What we know:
The chain is of the alpha/beta class and about 250 residues long. It has two domains: about 1-95 and about 175-235, Rossmann fold, CATH 3.40.50; about 105-175, no CATH class. The chain is about 25% helix and about 30% strand. It has helices at about 70-80, 115-120, 130-145, 160-170, 190-200, 220; strands spanning about 1-10, 20-25, 30-40, 45-55, 60-65, 85-90, 95-100, 175-180, 205-210, 225-230, 230-235. The strands form three sheets. The protein has a six-stranded mixed beta sheet. A three-stranded antiparallel beta sheet has the order 4-3-6, with helices on one face. Strand 8, helix 5 (about 190-200) and strand 9 (about 205-210) form a beta-alpha-beta unit. The longest helix has 14 residues, at about 130-145. The relative contact order is 0.21.
Amino acid sequence: MDLHNIESHLGTCCHHTDPVTVTLNVTDEPLVALESVCFHRERREVLTNINLTVNRGDFVAITGPNGGGKTTLLRLVLGLLRPSAGSITFPSGHPAVGYLPQKNSVDSHFPISVEDVVASGLLGIKNISAEQRHARVAQVLEQIEMSDLAARPIGRLSGGQLQRALLGRAIVAEPQLLVLDEPLSYIDKHFEAHIYRLIASLAPNCTTMLVSHEMTTIDAMANRHLIVDHTIRECAAHRHFALASCDY
Length: 248
């Protein structure tokens, strides 16, 4: 087992974020493997010849231009889309997954409370009592600092509050694979720092795939960095502030 210890420093930026220490338990066991994957939408090739293996314990940071296929890649891994060609397999069996989608993919007018949103992340979990379910939801509401908003309908939340509720849904079942699509969207600076610490606390016990345009802290938390622009490249540079810094 490879213990990956790395301290994340913000570097030059207009605001200060405390360093975040991440311990990753990375193994050589493949969790998900994509082989020659292509995806077409309306005769347009969104992703071409994607070959990628994510090992158990990896923290994969994904960046790239808008429209380059980052979200499509995540949705293919999640099984929400089917590849036009190629294969996606889970060599050790399909893991339990937690997913934070982009906020604009969620119907904020659906009549459901913050507590119900978080609890919905436990719907696929068997052999859990009502008491255990309640305790787990309460714990996560505290983690995302929304205990006082538990009964509030999501239609009355700000964009950042809704993002936090969706993050709670993603982590409540303690997934083996955590997939986060722009988790910092709409989040204020106070909670941005809190999310970094929360993700860092989850990382030793799961595999993380995270799409973000904000790499100043995330890049140093991750052990792998991918550039997705219709194809996929893995960057070996120590820092990833800009695409030009990457050494393929």
